[in-house]
């Protein structure tokens, strides 16, 4: 690991290095293989969802349109982080320039924020489907779906651009700074600035409220109304069917918002850099990996389409 005191006295353009997980070669190899396998599983699982929804006309509905956008976001989200992370696990620390760190932060925050907004949009979709089933196709049109996804991505990009610009307008003393993380996330980079960061901390908290707290409140309100509608359904089969369409989405929401809130909405005085890095592993690997599993295992339409597709491909080989 690099010694901090002599490094900070070097001159030259500012660049960053990520703190290593371990210096033990055997553990480095083990972590590299583990994270690589998880990354490949994330790519395969989410790509399978996109493929099966796009190739089965029965799944061309608003709910599955949002689902393939969520899967696409998960692929991009992990790809922004994991390849660079893997390259830094084995061997010497590889520096990332200031501009590269800023670019990673911008795309990471943009994709993560879009993910959160999209989950709120999906909650609205389920609300309309259950509360107003007869008017669902008239209310949730293809044009509205596209507009909501574009607005979610646009708002996330705007917030991310402003936040990233504010962070990297700060001075970073020294030539090479070590980030106690595996990516250029906002809190660990902000800790390295050699200036008063209270105004930026306030902006980060405000963005966190807009991205996490507000959508979470909207989702909670949607599910409160959905729950009331489900209880009014007379048949037990109808209640189970309505609940099954929402339970998968709700499981993803709890995991995503719970982990992100622990990092971005906790007071700085109660946070630990090591804890933030561990929690970040959850929403970098676990959530994108569980999304396809949750939606395929608990969604009969998607799992049935996957079985049909793979069964149809295997049939000529068995003949």
Automatic annotation (TrEMBL):
GO terms for cellular component: plasma membrane. Keywords: Cell membrane, G-protein coupled receptor, Membrane, Olfaction, Receptor, Sensory transduction, Transducer, Transmembrane, Transmembrane helix. Pfam families: 7tm_4 (PF13853). It is found in: Cell membrane. The chain crosses the membrane at residues 29-52, 64-86, 106-124, 144-170, 202-231, 243-265, 277-297. The keyword Transmembrane applies. InterPro entries: GPCR_Rhodpsn, GPCR_Rhodpsn_7TM, Olfact_rcpt. It is a multi-pass membrane protein. Residues 45-295 form the G-protein coupled receptors family 1 profile domain. Putative odorant or sperm cell receptor. This is Olfactory receptor. It comes from Moschus moschiferus.
């Amino acid at each position: 690991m690099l010694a901090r005191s002599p490094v900070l006295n070097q001159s030259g353009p500012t660049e960053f290095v990520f703190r290593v997980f371990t210096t033990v070669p055997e553990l480095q190899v083990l972590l590299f293989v583990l994270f690589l396998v998880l990354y490949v599983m994330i790519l395969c699982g989410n790509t399978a969802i996109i493929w099966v929804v796009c190739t089965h006309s029965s799944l061309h509905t608003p709910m599955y349109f949002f689902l393939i956008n969520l899967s696409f976001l998960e692929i991009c989200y992990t790809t922004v982080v994991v390849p660079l992370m893997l390259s830094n696990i084995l061997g010497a620390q590889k520096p990332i320039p200031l501009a590269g760190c800023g670019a990673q932060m911008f795309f990471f925050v943009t994709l993560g924020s879009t993910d959160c907004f999209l989950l709120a949009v999906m909650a609205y979709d389920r609300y309309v489907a259950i509360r107003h089933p007869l008017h669902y196709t008239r209310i949730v049109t293809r044009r509205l779906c596209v507009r909501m996804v574009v607005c979610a991505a646009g708002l996330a990009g705007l917030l991310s651009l402003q936040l990233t610009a504010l962070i990297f307008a700060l001075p970073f003393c020294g030539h090479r700074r070590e980030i106690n993380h595996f990516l250029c996330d906002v809190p660990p980079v902000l800790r390295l600035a050699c200036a008063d960061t209270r105004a930026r901390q306030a902006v980060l908290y405000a963005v966190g409220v807009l991205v996490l707290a507000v959508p979470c409140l909207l989702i909670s309100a949607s599910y409160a109304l959905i729950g009331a509608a489900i209880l009014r359904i007379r048949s037990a089969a109808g209640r189970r069917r309505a609940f099954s369409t929402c339970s998968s989405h709700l499981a993803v929401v709890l995991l995503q918002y719970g982990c992100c809130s622990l990092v971005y909405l906790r007071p700085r005085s109660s946070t630990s850099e090591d804890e933030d890095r561990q929690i970040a592993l959850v929403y970098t690997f676990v959530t994108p990996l569980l999304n396809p599993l949750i939606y395929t295992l608990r969604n009969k339409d998607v799992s049935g389409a996957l079985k049909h597709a793979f069964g149809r491909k295997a049939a000529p080989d068995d003949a």
